[in-house]
Structures are given as C-alpha cells and as structure tokens.
Amino acid sequence: MTENRDSILDIWGPRTPYFGEWPERVDERTTEEPDHWVQSACVLCSNGCGCDIGVKDGRIVGVRGRAVDRVNHGRLGPKGLHGWEANNSPDRLTTPLIRRNGQLVPATWDEAMGLLVAKSKELIEQHTSSSIGFYTSGQLFIEDYYTLGVLGKAGLGTPHMDGNTRLCTATAGAALKISFGTDGQAGSYADLDTTEAVLLVGHNMASQQTVLWTRILDRLAGPNPPRLVVIDPRRTFTAEQATVHLAPRAGTNVAVLNGLLRLLIENGHVDYDFIENHTVGFEELVKTVGKWTPERVEALTGVPAGQLQAAAQILGTCRTLVSTVLQGVYQSMQGTAAAVQVNNINLLRGLIGSEGNAILQMNGQPTSQNTRECGADGDLPGFRNWDNPAHIYELARLWNVHPDKIPHWAPPTHAMQIWRYCETGSIKLLWIQATNPVVSMPELGRIRKILEQKGLLVVVQDAFLTETAQLADIVLPAALWGEKTGTFTNTDRTVHISHKAVEPPGQARADFDIFLDYARRMDFRDQDGAPLIKWDTPEEAFEAWKACSKGRPCDYSGLSYARLSAGSGIQWPCNEEHPNGAAHLYPDHQFNTHADYCESYGYDLVTGAETSPEAYRAHDPNGRARLLAADYEVPHEQPDADFPLWFTTGRVVYHFHTRTKTGRARALQQAAPEAFVQLAAEDAARYDIAEGDLVEVASRRGRATAPARIGGIEPGLVFMPFHYGAWGQAADAPARAANELTLTEWDPVSKQPHFKYAAVRIRKTNA
Ligand SMILES: Nc1nc2c(c(=O)[nH]1)N[C@H]1C(S)=C(S)[C@@H](COP(=O)(O)OP(=O)(O)OC[C@H]3O[C@@H](n4cnc5c(=O)[nH]c(N)nc54)[C@H](O)[C@@H]3O)O[C@H]1N2
Ligand SMILES: Nc1nc2c(c(=O)[nH]1)N[C@H]1C(S)=C(S)[C@@H](COP(=O)(O)OP(=O)(O)OC[C@H]3O[C@@H](n4cnc5c(=O)[nH]c(N)nc54)[C@H](O)[C@@H]3O)O[C@H]1N2
Ligand code: SF4
Ligand SMILES: [Mo]
C-alpha cells in the first residue's frame, strides 16, 4: 500500500518550482501492492494525465502517474488517485436488463440485443431510420466513436446522433472552426512552461484540471512567474491566485471581452503586421468593440474600470500568452460569441503558433475531443464539412457506400433537437450511452417526462443503474475504463492508449463490442454487399480511423497501438511531416480556413444562420484567421420581482459530474457528501440565512434544496454544484439537483445549453 500524499487535504501536492522544463513528480496511490502495472491515462477530466493501473489478483488496486508522460510528468489529482475505486463497486451492472410489466428484470445479451435489433428494424420499416436517435458521450474511446459514427451514418443513415459533448464542448469546436477553419487546439500545455501571462475565462482550472493547475502553481513558485488574469463571478481557487480577477455579472462575458479588445486597440497593443497578413475582419471588430469603454463595461458588468484596464495592460504587454476558456463561457449567454472574442485577443496580438502562445478552448470530458473528431456528434469524421459535397464523397469512398446514404441534406441534428424530437414523438428509439441526462440535462422535469413517454423506447448503456437507467426499457451493462482497450485524446491533442487491465464484472461488455454486435445483427452492408464495419478488434478500428483521419488536421496516420504503447502520449497531427506529433498548429500562421478544407462555412453569431457555401467562397479567407466580432446581448432570462436573483451552476473539485464514479470512491464522497447553495453574505443577511441552513432555490421550472454556504461569490448570484441527483439520497428527501432549475435554451451557433444563468428566488426552509 502506497499513498504519497493525502490528495483530499493537499489537492495539488508539493511545489516543484521551475521555468522552462516542468520537473517530474510521481504521484501514486495503491491500497495493496500490485502484482503488475498496465499502461493507461486518466478519464476523469480532459487533462488526460498518463497513469499506470495497478493490478493484483485480477482487481484494480491503485494508480501511479507516468513520469515520462508529456501531460502530467507523473502527477495525479484527487479524482485520478481515487476514482478507480468505482470499478470495484458492488453496484456495478452485471447483466442486461429488460423492462417487463413495468419492472427492469435481468435478461441475456441475446434477449436484450435481439429486442433492440427487432425494434430498430421495425421502426426503420415503419418510420425510416430517422425514428432512431443516439445520445452518446464524451467518455468512450476513439474506436467506439468511430464505429458508432460509421454505423449511424452509413449503416442506419440517421442524422440524429450527438453526444453529451453538446453540453460540454460543442462551443469549443464551434469557436475553433469559426476563427481557424477547423477544430483542434492551436497550442500545447507545454506553453504554460514559459508563457508570460495566462488568461482564464470562465475556467476554474484549479478545481477542474488540478494537474494542469499544478503546472501553473509551479511556475508561480519559480523564476519569472506568469501574470494571471481570471474572469469568473466567483472567488474560485483559480481566482485566488490571480494577478487581476474580474468578477462580472453572469452572462456578460462578451461585454467584458469587448472592453478588453477595445483597450488593446486603443493602447496600440496590436500586431498590425499579423493582422494585415493573416486575418480578416479587423475593421468590423474595431467598430463593434468601439463603444465598450471601461465605464460602459463597468455599468453593465460590475467590473470596475480600473480593473479592466489593469487586465488589458497585462494582456497587451505580455510577449507570450496562453488563453483558456471553459464552461463559464461555453454554457453562459453568447457562448460561441464570447469564446471567439478570446481567440481574437491572441489574434490581435499575433500570439499564436509558437512557444508560450496557446489558445486552449478547453474540453471537459476526457474523450470529448474524439466524439467531435470521429463524427459521433453532430460533426462528420475527420473535421469534414457536412455542407461540402467533396467531403461527403471522401467518406462515401472510404466506407464504400453511396454518398446519398450519408445524411447531409441538412446539418446533423444537435442533442437539444434530438431531445425535442423525442418529446414530439418523431424519434421513437433513443439509445443513450455513457451519460446520465436525468441529472445532467437542463430542466430535469422535462427530461424525466420525455423518457417516461410510452411511445419512446429508451436504451441505456452504462456501468451503473443511474437515475437515467432506471427509466430505461433496455439496460446494457458496460465495461469501464481499465476493463477494455482503446485510445483517446486530451485537450492539447495528446493521444493516449489505455490497455485492458482487468476483466469487467459479470457479463458487462465493452462498448466497442456492443456496437459491433449491433452492426452485425443489423447486417449493415457496403455497396458491394460486404459487411460495412470491416473491423473486429479495437486495434483494427484504430487502423480504420487512421485512414479516415489522413490528410485532415487531426491526422493520426503516424500513430499505432505499438507506438502509443512504447511511449506515453503523442500529439496529433502525427504523420510523415510530423512523425513525433506537433506542439503547435499554425506555426506559419496559415490557418485551415480555405473553402475546400474548412470544417464549416461559418455562422451569424446572433441568429446562428449558416453561411452558404457560395457566400463563403465569395470571400474565401484562404488561410487567414477570422476576427469575428459580436456585440453584447441580454440573457434570455433575467432576475425580476418574482425571481430576483441570478443562478449559476458548476463543479467541485472532488466530484465528477453525476458522481457515478466519484460518489463510489470513499474519500471523495466523504470530502463532498452533499449539495450546497452558495450565496454572498449580503444576500444571506437579507434572507436571514446562516451557514448550513437549508435553502430552497426555485426557478420557473423547479426547485432544489440544500444547505447554505456563505461567501466567495458576487452579491445577487446563487451557485449550486450540479453533481447531486437522487442517487444516495433518502427517498423522501426534497430534490437537490441544480438542473431542476436550469432552462431549456441554447447558443444559436454551437447549440450548447445555458447552464450558467437563470433567475431564481430563495427561502430558508429550516423547521
Ligand atoms: N472536479 C471536477 N473536475 C472536472 C469535472 C467535474 O465534474 N469535476 N468535469 C470536467 C468537465 S466535463 C468539464 S466540462 C470541466 C468544466 O470545468 P469548468 O468550466 O472550470 O467548471 P464549472 O464549474 O462548470 O464552471 C467554471 C466557472 O464558470 C463560472 N461562471 C459562471 N457563470 C459565468 C459567466 O457568466 N462568466 C464567466 N466568466 N464565468 C462564469 C463559475 O463561477 C465557475 O467557477 O471540468 C472537467 N473537470
Ligand atoms: N447545471 C449544470 N449541468 C451540467 C453542467 C453544468 O456545468 N451545470 N455541465 C455539463 C457538462 S460540461 C457535462 S460534460 C455533463 C456531464 O453529464 P453526464 O455525462 O450525464 O455525467 P456523468 O456522470 O459523467 O455520466 C457519465 C455516465 O457514463 C457512465 N460511464 C462511465 N464510463 C463508461 C463507459 O466506459 N461506458 C459506458 N457505457 N458508460 C460509462 C457513468 O457510469 C455515468 O453514468 O453535464 C452537463 N450538465
Ligand atoms: S487532472 Fe484530470 S486527468 Fe489528471 S488526474 Fe485529475 S482528473 Fe485525472
Ligand atoms: Mo463537460
């Protein structure tokens, strides 16, 4: 048994100060001495820390960071060190379940898959394959997503496939496409090792990517520490370390960012050569941001003019800059518009494509990058453009199907619309994989009603009987990380392999095998009558994906299972030109915006209207980045007399999402056993609420009750973590899920729902 530190009390561990080369520090936690170690990477956030899984007698007994890994240099955070305990939980699903006479009862795989296939065939016959929808995940592997993408697009031919990545990182993809032509992060984590400044917008890195934060803490402790600008309405762990912390009102990111852009321009802190040679749209941007004087920003957002100026000084004078963006932007008002303005900051300064310069439109889930790359969401595989016939033909050739088989008559259906089609009845079979929407979707009352509808067959593929699985008609028991082999890619394009370390419990099966089984039983064929899915093992699937990715920005063609296993994490693109991967995209400032190559022809940031191919070609940016401007818009719901407070939601360091894993890891669960309602001291006084009092928060859509936690937040704003659903709660306890309150609204461009603002009222409910 080894435990280097108590990561619950000491989240980030001891400092290793540096500049230039981040020292190694190997974190380990095992409950017994392993008899062997198996190579993997952590799947409890998008950081993708390399780790080895310790195995004893066929069971996981711990993990150890991989010193050689470029992502973490050996470090692991509290979730990584503890989360694996969930694999060994007695709650694991071990057989398929089928609903009979209202009850979920055990069934064989043959019965469960037989039923799923019979239903699928019947629906296709009666209503076409458009009656089948998929709501997948950001937590599967490349091999799973690619197989799923092919069977959905070229087997079934349904346009209704998206992931919970819509809730997570759809905006990252959208913002990268808009500014640079395709998805994919321009920089690397290693840029933090030398950068002079870091801008974190709506991103609580200290809590949500603890190991990446350690990299920054170690810089802060070393020579030449970077200056930090943090934009978040709460005083988070991240904000506590800021050189300048801007705490704007919820939903006002665009106003703050336009204010910063305006100051950069006014102060002459722009690289005119870069703008002239490598961008389009500067004049329009100047016009749009012109009215956002510091005073005007202050009046609207509450950020003092002096602080905005201080932030603009840092951003304007640093010689290198890493900007990061996450849910405080993506899930807030004008998600895509705001994310693009962060890109614009680096672009105005020409700080992109070289050491110390990065824009990280962060991912959240460990493999959400791959959902987007492999086309298991509303994108086509390999960052191809659904509106470009040449891209469709490429896929049709690759899969040997007729191009018309691949849905491309309209944009692929986004998740919020998939749920809407379930609600209105046109989707009659919804297959949910590795996500728990009954806790994580907005407006839970509505989601429960949709899943309970008679006319909708609900299939849930999970490792636990989640709140969602409990409403399913068919439950498929899945193997978890550590119990299957596959590859995945973190935020900074680092690809890892995770090898199978132990057998899954009971009859649980790898997602990959479930998808293959479905494809075989459905008898999907190519246009020559051969099986559509031509692979049987994860490694063969990876080879097929490599072929699909070749020549596209996310080129995996130089990678292999052997190479990934011999090393420890390699960045894409990895091909003949970049045999060891590339730290930076766009080193020559040639962007992927050519009409023939780009992933999207763009959108109107306000309406979301898609630019036509003709309109795009008429002004082809042809390798220049786009500086797309956006003006501030008022959030869709605002406090009023009935619901006088702002509401926002997010995470705590110890839990991952709906707690199916972290809630089953003893120390993590003990560290954060209960939901809470965070409010400012002023508001607590006004409502006569003391620390720990039970508070009911109500919106127009529902209520949630939890103990009060006072301080660390702007007055007028109430925060709840969204981790806590019904699981683990007494049956008669009042609802505590933050998503009882949130609203069904989404960003016009990325279609990502708005979890970060709503209007609520509160009252103390102590007896
Ligand atoms: N411990 C832990 N780590 C995780 C996860 C987890 O569940 N737990 N999940 C992973 C996943 S999938 C994701 S997507 C990431 C999410 O990582 P983050 O985006 O860092 O997490 P959140 O807490 O959702 O939101 C970040 C911050 O947005 C702020 N915010 C709210 N409204 C606004 C606004 O209008 N403007 C601005 N500027 N900020 C606002 C909130 O105060 C909050 O501190 O974390 C990943 N890592
Ligand atoms: N209010 C509010 N709501 C939010 C957010 C917010 O900030 N505020 N954030 C949103 C974001 S960014 C995200 S990412 C979502 C996350 O929301 P969810 O995706 O619903 O969260 P998880 O709890 O991670 O659910 C993943 C499920 O997959 C299962 N699972 C894990 N590994 C595997 C596997 O290998 N195979 C299979 N088949 N199943 C597996 C787990 O047991 C779990 O039930 O929540 C969103 N909802
Ligand atoms: S930072 Fe993320 S990937 Fe790394 S150990 Fe923590 S949860 Fe795992
Ligand atoms: Mo996420």
Description:
With 767 residues, this protein is of the alpha/beta class. The protein folds into 4 domains: 2-88, Single Sheet (N-terminal domain of TfIIb); 97-168 and 368-571, Rossmann fold (3-Layer(aba) Sandwich); 184-362, Dimethylsulfoxide Reductase, domain 2; 645-742, Beta Barrel (Barwin-like endoglucanases). 30% of the residues lie in helices and 17% in strands. It is built from 26 helices and 28 strands. The strands form 6 sheets. The protein has a 7-stranded mixed beta sheet with strand order 7-6-18-17-16-8-9, with helices on both faces. Strands 23-27-24-26-25-28 form a 6-stranded mixed β-barrel. Strands 1-2-5-4-3 form a 5-stranded antiparallel beta sheet. Strand 19 and strand 20 form a beta hairpin. Helix 3 packs parallel to helix 21 and helix 9 (253-266) crosses helix 13 (305-317). It is globular. The relative contact order is 0.16. The model has no long low-confidence stretch (mean pLDDT 97). Molybdenum atom (MO) binds at residues 168, 364-365. Molybdenum atom (MO) binds next to loops. Residues 35-91 form the 4Fe-4S Mo/W bis-MGD-type domain. Pfam families: Molybdop_Fe4S4, Molybdopterin, Molydop_binding. This is Nitrate reductase.
What is the terminal-to-terminal distance?
A: 46 Å
Q: Can you name the CATH architecture of the largest domain? A: 3-Layer(aba) Sandwich
Instruction: Tell me the β content.
Output: 15-25%
Bound molecules: ligand MGD, iron/sulfur cluster, molybdenum atom
What's the mean pLDDT score? 97
- The top-level CATH class of the largest domain is Alpha Beta
Q: What global shape is seen? A: globular
